[in-house]
Design goal:
This protein is α/β, with parallel strands linked by helices. It folds into three domains: 41-71 and 295-400, 4-hydroxy-3-methylbut-2-enyl diphosphate reductase, catalytic domain (Cobalt-precorrin-4 Transmethylase, domain 1, 3-Layer(aba) Sandwich), CATH 3.40.1010.20; 72-162, Rossmann fold; 164-292, Cobalt-precorrin-4 Transmethylase, domain 1. The chain has helices at residues 8-17, 29-40, 43-50, 72-87, 103-111, 144-152, 163-177, 191-199, 209-221, 225-231, 259-281, 294-306, 323-334, 387-400; strands spanning 21-22, 54-57, 60-64, 93-95, 114-116, 119-120, 123-124, 134-137, 156-159, 181-185, 203-206, 249-253, 286-288, 313-317, 339-342, 348-349, 353-356, 364-367, 375-381. The strands form five sheets. Strands 1-9-8-4-5 form a five-stranded parallel sheet, with helices on both faces. It is globular. It binds iron/sulfur cluster. The site of iron/sulfur cluster (SF4) has 15 residues, from α4, α7 and α12.
Length: 402
């Protein structure tokens, strides 16, 4: 069914009323919080926090970003997954995707016998899931068709979708209701954006300001529809027509994009529609809601502050497919820092080699990454990275420089 024709709000309402649907945990939060503390928190990080985010040891000074690591949406999702295991001790439990983009957390869940739905030929293979089994939806949500399928199968659904992500879904539903096309700032293959676009009516995903400028120019001056469609292949709703579907637009975002860019894109379309339709009719042609998540904003702001320091190098820790971590890395690179993006402390070995992922490139190994003599290392981590992983990486740096 085409999204425009489907009342996704009504579907969500009826799903939320089902007794097989849970989105608030199962009442043993306190106990689970203690388990999570033991598994993911770190005394070393607490010490650095208490010391104004700086720690000096021998030749090394660590400067930690003032906001980094687990956001509350992620903490909540992980806690709910642990609670689900406890609440359904014998049932088969699945998760539709990585709960968050962090290898150590996902591995722990696997050890707890939570199965991940696998991709077969690019499609998720739900044939393994049977009626009565429990399925967890991750922090970045699931598409409406996945929810429908699991509901129809008679599964118990535990929905850990972050409320910030749900807020974006509500925005695109408002665009749909008013026949506005949702222009989504995001990565069209990212699970969160796939989910968001499933709640939208007509949509177009733009990756960055450059793509947004192309669209804005098309709105104002027209162009080749064919060129437009091939440029955005895979990033728009079925039947999208740039000549018909850009007359009324609303702006939405993947919650973990670069905040400054989301804001610029919002302003660009606001000005474009104002220019095209004038102040009287503007409101009929443009809608926008602020849906940048606080946690993403805080982490990026802290990084912008950190890159003002005099640092020898930067270490950015988080899943390689984590969008918010990659944006932190982008900030460091833009400021001209040598910055290493790793997903776990195992990437650092005791021969002073680091296996890391440069921006938009494959994983590579760099030797002698820690310079001789006194160094200052800036450290941050993405919203899906537990403190313990950051602490392990810092401990390795201290050890290497002993
Ligand atoms: S980064 Fe923001 S939107 Fe994403 S899970 Fe965390 S709080 Fe929610």
């Amino acid at each position: 069914m085409k999204n425009q024709q489907m009342d996704t709000r009504a579907f969500k309402r009826s799903l939320h009323q089902s007794e097989n649907y849970h989105r608030r945990g199962f009442g043993n939060e306190a106990e689970i919080a203690e388990v999570l503390n033991t598994e993911y928190q770190s005394n070393l990080i607490q010490t650095i926090r208490n010391n104004n985010y700086i720690l000096e040891q021998g030749d090394v000074t660590i400067h930690l970003a003032e906001s980094f690591g687990f956001c509350w949406g992620v903490e909540r999702a992980v806690a709910m997954a642990y609670e689900t295991r406890q609440h359904f001790p014998t049932e088969k439990i699945w998760i539709t995707n990585e709960i968050i983009h962090n290898p150590s957390v996902n591995q722990r869940l696997q050890e707890m016998n939570v199965g991940f739905i696998e991709l077969v030929d690019g499609e998720k293979d739900f044939s393994v899931v049977n009626s009565g089994e429990v399925v967890i939806l991750p922090a970045f949500g699931a598409s409406v068709s996945e929810m429908q399928l699991l509901n129809d199968k008679g599964c118990t659904i535990v929905d850990t979708t972050c409320p910030w992500v749900s807020k974006v879904w509500n925005s695109v539903e408002k665009h749909k209701k008013k026949d506005h096309t949702s222009i989504i700032h995001g990565k069209h293959q990212h699970e969160e954006t796939i989910a968001t676009s499933s709640f939208a009516g007509t949509y177009l995903v733009v990756l960055n300001l450059k793509e947004a400028e192309y669209v804005a120019n098309y709105i104002l001056n027209g162009g080749s529809a064919q060129e437009f469609l091939s440029k955005f292949a895979g990033a728009y709703s079925e039947g999208f027509d740039p000549d018909q579907d850009l007359l009324k637009v609303g702006v939405a975002n993947q919650t973990t994009m670069l905040k400054s860019e989301t804001e610029q894109i919002g302003k660009l379309f606001e000005q474009t529609m104002l220019k095209k339709y004038g102040p009287v009719d503007f409101n009929q042609h443009f809608m926008s809601f602020n849906t940048i998540c606080d946690a993403t904003q805080e982490r990026q702001d802290a990084m912008l502050k950190l890159v003002e320091e005099d640092l020898s190098l930067m270490l950015v820790i988080g899943g390689f497919n984590s969008s918010n971590t990659t944006h932190l890395q982008e900030i460091a690179i833009e400021k001209g820092f040598t910055s290493y993006h790793i997903d776990s402390a195992h990437r650092i070995n005791m021969s002073n080699e680091i296996e890391h992922k440069p921006l938009d490139q494959s994983i590579t190994t760099t030797s002698n990454w820690l310079p001789k003599g006194k160094i200052t290392v800036g450290v941050t981590s993405g919203a899906s990275t537990p403190d313990k992983v950051v602490a392990e990486a810092i401990a390795k740096i201290f050890e290497l420089k002993k």
